[in-house]
Structures are given as structure tokens and as C-alpha cells.
Design goal:
By secondary structure, the protein is an all-alpha fold. Among the domains are: about 100 residues, no CATH class; about 55 residues, Structural Genomics Hypothetical 15.5 Kd Protein In mrcA-pckA Intergenic Region, Chain A, CATH 3.10.290.10; about 40 residues. The protein is built from nine helices and three strands.
Length: about 270
Amino acid sequence: MGDPKYPRRAWRKPKRPFNYELKMEELKTLGTFGLRTKRELWKAHTELSRVRHQARSLLALRKEDREKKEPVLMRSLERIGLVKPGSTLDDVLNLGVDDLLKRRLQTIVAGKLGFRTPYHARQAVVHGHVMIGERRVDIPSYTVTVEEETEIRFAPESTLPKVLEKEAKHRSAAAHDDDAEDMAAAGAEDGAAPGTEAAEQAPPGDAPAAEQAGAGGAPAAEQAPPGDAPAAEQAGAGGAPAAEQAPPAAEPAQAGADPPGEQAPADGPPA
């Protein structure tokens, strides 16, 4: 029947899954590397934890035992590109989850074959457009070795290279048009600057004239009322006495004479 298998758990949840800062950091990592679910991120954390645990275990051994077992771990990490040749166990302890995610096939394809986003690269890998050497690989989380990294290419029957080339031309043309519009706008601003300066300089030249006109007109306007005021005052002064002198002129000339209605009748025959 064969030997029984005891599979280890591929991922572990974080100890504080509802921590806000942790959730925001996880979402940022998911968007950066094009991960589909947080489970893929937790798998990377678990694998990195396993590697760091091995490094700490080797540091706890005696020097003779560590010299025998350390090269095995270092060669395996150098093979997948996590550490450079000549690195030590301290470099292994300084590794982060981003270093492990950068060795995924999805991430390498996104940077090497000209995809715009990691999600676009993931779709191409899943649909079988990417090959490593002579074999087709459709697993986005596949860990690429240093030797295999140079053999990544599109499948011969894939039409994605033409599509990506066409999109690149459209982007370059759009960028060229944007640059031309920016240059035209800058030229228009430079051409409008002298006129603006002249317009700004024109009001100061007209201001003195307006000020002079106001200065010259104000005294005249102010002098006119004083010239008319004396006439009105004179008219009032001269008219009031005339009106007051008119009633005495209408009085009877002789104080002793009878009124006109009471005069005696003329001599003549009686009526």
C-alpha cells in the first residue's frame, strides 16, 4: 500500500486577522503582485516562515554541523533566486514576503513580456500563452528558477505579442499627443504674457488722466455751488423786503378821508 503521507498545511492565517493596518498592508500587496485571494499571500508567508525557521535552526547548531548543513539550504535558495551567491544565514533572516512573491511566474512575466498589469499577465499564464523552454506552464504561482528565467517566452501560436505591440503603439501615440498639447499650451501662455503685461501697464497710464480730470473737475463743481449760493441768498435777501414793503403801499393815502363806500352823495335833486 505504500508509505502513508503526512501533508503539512500550506498556509496559516495571521494571528490578528482583524487588525486594520494588517488588512490594508495585505490589500496593497495583493494589488502589487496581482494575487487573487489572501490565501495566496498567506501561502507565501508560511513558506517564508519555514525558510527562516531552518536558518534559525542552523544558527543554533555547532559550527561543525552547521558547516555541513548550511550549504544545502543556501544552494536551494540561490537556485530560485532568493539570495545571491556568497550570502549568509543572516541574509536569509532578512528576507521578506515581497522577495518570495517576486519569484512567481506571474510577476516575472508581467515585467519581462511587456504586460501592463500583473492581472493581465496572470490571465495570459492561465490561458496558456506562456512557455518555459519547451513546456507550457499555466500556474501563476510557479516559482521560477534562475536558469528558467531566461527561457520564458510566448507560445508560438499566441497572438498576444501583436496585441501588446499594438497597445504599445497606441500608448506612445497618445503620449506624443499629450506632449504636443502641453507644448502648445505652454506656447500660448508665453505668447499671451506680453499682452497681459501691456494690459497691466495700460491702466497706470490712464489713471493719472482720470485723476487729473477728477482733480480738475471737482474744484469747478465745488466752485459752482458757491457762485450760485450767493445769488440765491441775494435773491432771497432782496425779495423778502420787497414782499414785506408791498402791503404798506396798498393802505389808504389819507388817514382822515372816508372810505370809498361811505362818501356823501353828490349835490342834486333828491331821488
